[in-house]
């Protein structure tokens, strides 16, 4: 019976879900619409505060009327008015505690915020407020540790418990991190483990530090002293250390197999929560040092979530899931053996949503609905419900409401039953609390889309027209166009569930006025909007590839056609970045001009034409070559100066004179004076000063405490001369240093001014008003300050001191402590498509506190997942674009149209890259297709030809059809009138009729998508001469007799990509008859350049030789020596080097007609016309003579 009731309830829930969906509307946009409270912002459940700052506990909510707020503290009402230190922000529930007059620890409690109005009550999570703590280390006296060389050792840290726990690290007295290795490493609890000790481990400054992140304070443990002895040293020093130290071993430490220091025993167990980080460690001792490895006994380690730390001793798995439960085995191994330890991992789970938190319901009176609170966890969580903050079992009974486990079913709701329901899902490891209201409203329809809004869209692109509405019951949307003669609910219109009207492929005829009508039982509301379909933007003349000499000028043209009502903007890019800020680059409305070209101008230039609706782009490459060099005149370098003399000698200056050497036809431009300091840097020459070539004297200012020797070099247009001979030595006396370094420079005699040079290095954290820390540094040019927080500004001072005294007070410089990897990824990452090959990525800058270093820039990782066309292959090659500086957007050029792309954005600083933003995807729209893959001409007849083709390799969208254009070509290669045919997308062949016989035609075929026509592939062919040849002209190939196809005209074919070369380099051999002979055509793929045609009479005797005709570089030849009425065997031959074999084609049998292929019309011949004229004239003369004779006969008797 119970099972039957559960099944009925489940069916009822399914029925209600199908009938009613939650009405998600922007309620804040509707004035006067009642709404129960909704909490919009609250502090985290575990809220750790800084005891030095005011406590702010957030609680923000919305509702109509605006809700009021109250708080509970440790489960009881907290009267804020009674506490003078606590205030609440106006129109908000956010509570502020002023700690200037009270201690923060007095306010450590569990708080809960309640927000209510007359329609319901919402509650926040339980907010546990705790102050961060950084306690001091307890005082302890640490004994020195004496250990025998080779044994294991553990140095305990045991830091004080803080909130949150501190970060542990080991350093020495000089704030230098102690080196760690596979032999020495730090455990997860902070102790320092030695698998075996060495003599060099002896030191008296093993110091454990604890850094507390909230207060940015560092606590230091007392130093631990360690002395490592071998057996001889133990015998000598036993008495000295026995009373004051602990002796760990008396036996010599021999090599031994590994044993585990932690964990103990052969196995252990560990529990971890789902979504958290699992860390397991195995630290072993042994000699030699053991190596540690890990496996998962019950499966494989998750590759992308597994990390090995501390020299393989720690296994870390991030974002733990239930599949990570099982047995893990660590193995420690050296050459003497191995040891294993098995850790059984149990994964538990705090409650988590399966299909999201419950969603708000807006219902009309009499309607039904469902609130679902579906969550999971381990162990299975308990689901409880409350209404307006009161357990639902204690709330007033309501027959329209029924609770079924994690579901509340509402049937036939009535006005006044609005409320906020709380769903609480909990188990031993946590809880989830969610508010969802049921708002019972009776509202006439309203359309939220602005009236008379104008939508603009590009022709052949989808159009989406909004009709966002609200009403209770939910309105039904109906669309009309212009005259409202009929509803728009069929092709090409699609009405979506949210009321949006979609036109998949917008055309000019779709422009006009559209009306959407929202109806429910309470009334209707109509709204008018307008759609304008614009012509697409297209680049008519693209920039062309240019090769230009350095110093010349170059112009890239980019002429565009666009809709006249849209305002275009031309943008030029260089190598996908902004154009350099250089006055040599002049951008015009349709061109880019570069004058005085340099090598740096080489690259790819892209013009982008933008309108408010669409874009188009095209690119061209500029290659810069050197101008023809002119031969340089040969010169020689000058001779070295001579006769160096020192005069006018003073404490810290001297005058140097010299005599110049021979210039060798190139005037001396300057003299370089160098010196050697034999006191500090014997054998090293340094540049001191330069003087013009017209001078031979220099007054030299010198430094104290130096032993100077000088030399001079002369420079002309060729090079420097050899150095002169050195001058005599000149010594300066010591003096106090005058160096005021802003940083630590190298120690040089020139800067020391005297013996005993060292530095006082001082630093303190900026803005902390703390004392200066001072150290003395000698014989070094740098000092590392360790133990500092990440990337914090410090004030730095460096003062030079020698035995004569200190330099002047140093300047203060600002420096930063070490960088670390960024901890945050850019947020609100979005991609905006500019056209089918260009996208713009936007992101919000990472907050300064998360950069943790000098901001270098952002990197966008993007890759093509696949083409959206099923015929195109998969692509996944990752590309990276770097945008230096604090950018918030970047362009992704060179995209493939009609493709699915994924991308993410990362910040990088001087240390490296931070985490990636969540990977997002976008689809590029359709673009123009590539040219068809192939175009072949077959079945030539007297007045027709058949064309066969393959679709484009790069379809870049859905092929909507093909355009075939053709025109005749005469013997002078002049083109005749152009004819055009439109072909459907599913056709791959067509027969063209009504052609002229014996005429050469050129055909152009291109494919079309919604974005337009792609580039064309062209081919030429010739119709045959006469009907008589159709029956006479047969080609006998090796496989049998077939009707010949007319050859393609002599444009050299391109080799298809990614196809293997055939065994014979000749393909598609054919023949036809022309006026002056027989035309043989072919395609050739071989490397040889010596190609010729051989032919012989078919039934000739064996002694007859083949006739040859050389056809190098051509793809056809006309054989004029073939006799009519005979059949010939024809073949093609390719000849390489003399030691390489010949390549023969298959033989072709050609039968030459015995009768001329074209009958001569004698009536049109000149001699025949002249003959006929002569005969007619002769007959006329004879007729005249006869007529005369007849008249004479009438005079005889008988008249």
Automatic annotation (TrEMBL):
It is a single-pass type I membrane protein. Residues 1-22 form the signal peptide. The keyword ATP-binding does not apply. GO terms for biological process: axon guidance; brain development. The chain crosses the membrane at residues 1167-1188. Residues 640-735, 825-927, 931-1027, 1062-1155 form the Fibronectin type-III domain. SMART domains: FN3, IG, IGc2. Residues 1041-1066 are annotated as: Disordered. It is found in: Cell membrane. The keyword Oxidoreductase does not apply. Residues 37-124, 135-225, 258-346, 351-439, 445-532, 536-623 form the Ig-like domain. GO terms for cellular component: axon; plasma membrane. GO terms for molecular function: cell-cell adhesion mediator activity. It comes from the Eukaryota. InterPro entries: FN3_dom, FN3_sf, Ig-like_dom, Ig-like_dom_sf, Ig-like_fold, Ig/MHC_CS, Ig_I-set, Ig_sub. Keywords: Cell adhesion, Cell membrane, Developmental protein, Differentiation, Disulfide bond, Glycoprotein, Immunoglobulin domain, Membrane, Neurogenesis, Phosphoprotein, Repeat, Signal, Transmembrane, Transmembrane helix. Belongs to the immunoglobulin superfamily. L1/neurofascin/NgCAM family. This is Neuronal cell adhesion molecule a. It comes from Notothenia coriiceps (black rockcod). The gene is nrcama.
């Amino acid at each position: 019976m119970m099972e039957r009731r559960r099944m009925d309830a489940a069916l009822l829930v399914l029925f209600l879900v199908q009938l009613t969906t939650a009405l998600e509307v922007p309620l804040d946009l509707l004035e006067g619409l009642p709404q129960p409270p909704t909490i919009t912002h609250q502090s985290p459940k575990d809220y750790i505060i800084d005891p030095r700052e005011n406590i702010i506990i957030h609680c923000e909510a919305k509702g109509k009327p605006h809700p009021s707020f109250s708080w509970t503290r440790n489960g009881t009402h907290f009267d804020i008015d009674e506490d003078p230190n606590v205030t609440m922000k106006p129109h908000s529930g956010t509570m502020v505690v002023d700690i200037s007059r009270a201690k923060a620890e007095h306010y450590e409690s569990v708080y809960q915020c309640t927000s209510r109005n007359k329609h319901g009550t919402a509650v926040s999570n339980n907010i546990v407020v705790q102050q961060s703590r950084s306690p001091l280390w307890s005082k302890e006296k640490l004994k020195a540790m004496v250990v025998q060389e080779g044994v294991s050792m553990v140095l305990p840290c045991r830091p004080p418990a803080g909130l949150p726990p501190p970060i542990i690290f080991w350093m020495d007295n000089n704030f230098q991190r102690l080196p760690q290795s596979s032999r020495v490493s730090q455990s997860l609890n902070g102790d320092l483990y030695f698998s075996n000790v060495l003599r060099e481990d002896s030191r008296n400054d093993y110091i454990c530090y604890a850094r507390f992140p909230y207060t940015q304070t560092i606590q230091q443990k007392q130093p631990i002293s360690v002395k490592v002895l071998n057996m001889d040293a133990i015998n000598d020093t036993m008495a000295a250390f026995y009373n004051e130290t602990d002796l760990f071993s008396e036996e010599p430490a021999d090599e031994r197999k590994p044993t585990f220091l932690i964990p103990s025993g052969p196995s252990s167990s560990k529990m971890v929560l789902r979504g958290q980080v699992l860390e397991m460690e195995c630290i072993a001792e042994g000699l030699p040092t053991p190596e540690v490895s890990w496996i998962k006994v019950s499966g494989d380690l998750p590759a992308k979530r597994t990390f090995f730390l501390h020299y393989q001793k720690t296994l870390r798995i991030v974002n733990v899931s239930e599949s990570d439960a099982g047995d893990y085995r660590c193995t420690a191994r050296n050459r003497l053996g191995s040891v294993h330890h098995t850790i059984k991992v149990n994964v538990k789970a705090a409650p988590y949503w399966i299909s999201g938190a419950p969603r708000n319901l807006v219902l009309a009176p009499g309607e039904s609905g469902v609130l679902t609170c579906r969550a999971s966890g381990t162990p299975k969580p308990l689901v409880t419900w409350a209404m307006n903050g009161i357990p639902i079992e204690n709330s007033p009974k309501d027959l329209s409401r029924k609770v079924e486990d994690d579901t509340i079913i509402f049937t036939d709701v009535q006005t006044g039953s609005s409320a906020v329901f709380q769903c609480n899902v909990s188990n031993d490891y946590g809880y989830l609390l969610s508010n969802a209201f049921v708002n019972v409203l009776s509202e006439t329809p309203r359309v939220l889309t602005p009236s008379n809004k104008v939508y603009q869209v590009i022709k052949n692109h989808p159009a989406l027209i909004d009709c966002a509405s609200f009403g209770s019951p939910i309105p039904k949307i109906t669309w009309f166009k212009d005259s409202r003669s009929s509803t728009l609910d069929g092709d090409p219109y699609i009405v979506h569930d949210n009321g949006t009207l979609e036109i998949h492929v917008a055309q000019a005829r779709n422009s006009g006025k559209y009306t959407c009508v929202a109806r429910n039982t309470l009334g209707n509301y109509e709204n008018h909007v307008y759609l304008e379909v614009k012509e697409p933007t297209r680049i008519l003349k693209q920039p062309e590839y240019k090769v230009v000499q350095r110093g010349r000028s170059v112009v890239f043209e980019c002429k565009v056609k666009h809709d006249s009502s849209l305002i275009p903007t031309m943008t030029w890019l260089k190598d996908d970045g902004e154009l350099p800020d250089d006055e040599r680059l002049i951008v015009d409305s349709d061109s880019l001009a570069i004058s005085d070209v340099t090598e740096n101008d080489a690259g790819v230039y892209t013009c982008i034409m933008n309108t408010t609706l669409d874009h188009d782009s095209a690119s061209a490459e500029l290659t810069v070559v050197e101008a023809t060099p002119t031969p340089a005149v040969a010169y020689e370098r000058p001779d070295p100066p001579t006769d160096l003399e020192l005069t006018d000698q003073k404490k810290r200056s001297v005058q140097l004179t010299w005599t110049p050497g021979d210039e060798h036809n190139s005037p001396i431009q300057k003299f370089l004076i160098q010196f050697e300091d034999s006191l500090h840097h014997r054998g090293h020459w340094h540049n001191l000063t330069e003087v013009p070539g017209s001078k031979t004297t220099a007054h030299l200012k010198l430094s104290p405490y130096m032993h100077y020797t000088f030399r001079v070099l002369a420079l002309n247009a060729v090079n420097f001369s050899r150095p002169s001979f050195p001058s005599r030595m000149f010594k300066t006396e010591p003096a106090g240093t005058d160096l005021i370094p802003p940083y630590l420079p190298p120690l040089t005699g020139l800067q020391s001014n005297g013996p005993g040079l060292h530095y006082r290095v001082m630093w303190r954290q900026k803005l902390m008003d703390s004392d200066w820390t001072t150290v003395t540094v000698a014989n070094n040019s740098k000092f590392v300050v360790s133990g500092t927080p990440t990337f914090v500004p410090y004030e730095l001072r460096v003062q030079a001191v020698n035995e004569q005294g200190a330099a002047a007070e140093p300047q203060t410089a600002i420096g930063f402590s070490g960088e670390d990897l960024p901890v945050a990824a850019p947020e609100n990452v979005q991609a905006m498509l500019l056209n089918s090959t260009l996208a713009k990525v936007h992101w919000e800058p990472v907050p300064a506190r998360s950069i943790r270093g000098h901001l270098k820039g952002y990197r966008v990782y993007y890759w093509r997942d696949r083409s959206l066309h099923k015929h195109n292959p998969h692509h996944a090659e990752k590309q990276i674009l770097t945008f230096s500086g604090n950018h918030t957007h970047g362009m992704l050029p060179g995209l493939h149209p009609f493709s699915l792309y994924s991308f993410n954005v990362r910040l990088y600083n001087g240390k490296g890259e931070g985490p990636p933003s969540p990977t997002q995807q976008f689809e590029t729209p359709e673009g123009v297709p590539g040219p068809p893959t192939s175009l072949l001409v077959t079945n030539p007849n007297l007045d027709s030809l058949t064309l066969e083709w393959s679709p484009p390799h790069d379809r870049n969208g859905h092929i909507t059809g093909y355009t075939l254009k053709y025109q005749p070509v005469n013997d002078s290669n002049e083109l005749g009138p152009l004819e055009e045919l439109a072909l459907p997308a599913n056709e791959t062949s067509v027969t063209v009729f009504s052609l002229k016989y014996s005429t050469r035609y050129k055909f152009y075929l291109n494919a079309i998508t919604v974005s337009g026509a792609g580039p064309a592939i062209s081919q030429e062919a010739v119709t045959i001469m006469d009907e008589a040849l159709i029956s006479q002209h047969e080609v006998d190939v090796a496989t049998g007799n077939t009707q010949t196809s007319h050859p393609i005209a002599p444009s050299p074919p391109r080799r298809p990509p990614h196809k293997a070369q055939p065994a014979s380099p000749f393909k598609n051999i054919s023949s036809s008859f022309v006026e002056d002979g027989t035309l043989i055509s072919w395609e050739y793929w071989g490397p040889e350049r010596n190609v010729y045609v051989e032919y012989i009479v078919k039934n000739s005797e064996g002694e007859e030789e083949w006739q040859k005709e050389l056809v190098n570089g051509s793809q056809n030849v006309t054989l004029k020596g073939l006799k009519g009425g005979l059949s010939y065997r024809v073949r093609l031959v390719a000849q390489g080097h003399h030691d390489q074999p010949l390549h023969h084609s298959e033989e072709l049998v050609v039968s030459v007609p015995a009768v001329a292929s074209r009958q001569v019309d004698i009536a049109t011949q000149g001699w025949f016309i002249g003959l006929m004229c002569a005969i007619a004239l002769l007959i006329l003369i004879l007729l005249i003579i006869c007529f005369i004779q007849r008249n004479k006969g009438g005079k005889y008797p008988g008249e």
